[in-house]
Amino acid sequence: SDEKSSLVYQTIEQSNGFYVNFVEKKYRSRTNIPFRIVTSDVPDEKLETLFIKEAIQSNMIELKGHRAVGGIRVSLYNGIS
User: Fold this and answer.
1) Helices (DSSP H) in the chain: which residue ranges?
2) Which of 14, 27, 33, 37 has the fewest CB atoms below 10 angstroms from its CB?
3) Which H/E stretch holds residue 43?
4) Residue ranges per structural domain of the chain
């Protein structure tokens, strides 16, 4: 899971602020990675909804974030490739 999570975190960090992870590095999970899509320094729920719909078309499922927080959540469990 280290390799998978590193790839996701690198993509977020190299997106020039388009994808944002609000969790401090020392508290970040290797199995559940939440992030937001941000435009003009504000989370963009319309783009997040579009991202999730297009992800489903690419067989990436259950990316919707927690109902209390929103955003997107990538889960990297051992049985997931």
Assistant:
1) 2-13, 45-57
2) 27
3) strand 42-43
4) 2-75
* Number of Cβ atoms within 10 Å of the Cβ of 4: 17
Q: Is the Cβ–Cβ distance between 73 and 66 less than 8 Å?
A: yes
End-to-end, the C-alpha distance of the chain in Å comes to 10
Residue 72 phi/psi, 5-degree rounding, is: -125, 145
Report the phi/psi class of residue 33: left, alpha or beta, with left for phi > 0 and alpha for psi in -120 to 50.
Answer: beta
- CATH fold group of domain 2-75: Aspartate Aminotransferase, domain 1 (3.90.1150)
Quickly tell me which residue has 């927690």 as its tokens: 66
- pTM of the shown model: 0.88
Matching residue, tokens 């994808």: 19
pLDDT digits (tens, 9 = 90+) for 13-45: 999 999 999 999 999 999 999 999 999 999 999
